[in-house]
Amino acid sequence: MADTTTPNLGLVKPEVGASDDVWGEKLNTNFDKIDAMEPRIDTVESGITGINAKLPSVSPNPPSTPVNDSLWWDADSGQLYVRYNDGNTTQWVLANSGVVGPVGPQGAQGVQGLQGEPGLNPSSGIQINGGFEVSQENGTTAVSVSNTGKYVLDCWGVFSTGAQSFFTAQVNSVFPVGFTNSFQISMSTPNASPASSDVCFFYQNIEGYRIAKLGWGGAAATPITLGFWVRANRVGTYSGFVHNGSNRSYVFPFTINASATWEYKTATIPGDTSGTWAVGNTIGIQFGFTMMAGSGQTTAAGAWTAGVFRGVTGTVNGVAAASDSMFITGVVILPGTHTITAAQSPLLMRPYDVELQLCQRYYEVLTTPPTLNQSIASGESAAGNYYASWHFKTVKRATPTTALGPSASWVGTGPQVHLSKDLITFYQTSWFVAQGVSNTIAIYADARL
Fold first, then answer.
1. Are the C-beta atoms of 62 and 84 separated by less than 8 Å?
2. What is the pTM (predicted TM-score) of this model?
3. What is the maximal distance between C-alpha atoms in the chain?
């Protein structure tokens, strides 16, 4: 059979058995043809390289080593640029610019998005006096506590059982940025080996009216989120708690990482779907922060538990040495699962005048002139009796008890006292006088929980 050739280069394909004498000659001819194509291959490769160099580069940033007339598509703006050489300089020039056309008609309104979570609002705070600014009864005077419970600042108290004793007070010299006061416990007598029932904690009793909106005790109970600042000398895991005063408790841990350093903490507590939670003018919840809790006062963290507990299992003994102390401030409790940041914390404190009015529902100091007699708004009744009356600045939670303040006393027989939630009246069949100091007499009206 005759030889054949390749379709593209025309290379001879010698027929087997038919080109014995000229086989090598034909192969040499083929090799010469291939070799002669090398310059053309180089030209093609160069052309391809040039084409590739000018294909658009797609990136938010221009190519680092561009060639003239190359293209770049800005992935951020969607604009196409060309690398232009004007003979003097090279620069990227917008390639797809043109005259902006008229604005088209407005499109149809899209589907409304989901409603965002409500913003944080100081008025939603369940706590009272969370910045510890109001201290009507004691001011900044330190109070000594041992084996007792006692209110120290407005709406805030301490409770202690065991060998420890301590001083507690409003402090206006130790606080984190954004605050002006804190609440302190400082040991005077430590308790290195607490008994099972021993405990030491800060607390606030919150009236039922303030927690009614949470719906605790029902299937739709709302969670609460707590934020606070704390500083303690002893590092370790401390405890916080919430309970209803009788049979339902939730305890949570918080860790002090550095001694004598303000640290910001948060906790979210699920709403309790069981138990009985008061929604009137009695105690709705008690919450607090525990420095020490004996083993009988602790339970597992992170779950509602039957009983009254104030510490997590393994909580640190924060009253073991005379150097132990703890400061608290910036306490806020909001309904829901909001994230309360450290920066938001001071902004969620209500103004002083608002906090004062809230506090006066439970405790109020009435300041009078130096004597209570006919010269200060007293009068004579038709029956010949004498009286003097004052309205409270805020209607009280309940009918209060009253007492004269320090360095004040009745002269002779003291008057009868008639009380309601909004009025106090002194009443007697003869003149009555109270003596005080500094031209004032303090009368304390106490309706605390």
1. no
2. 0.72
3. 158
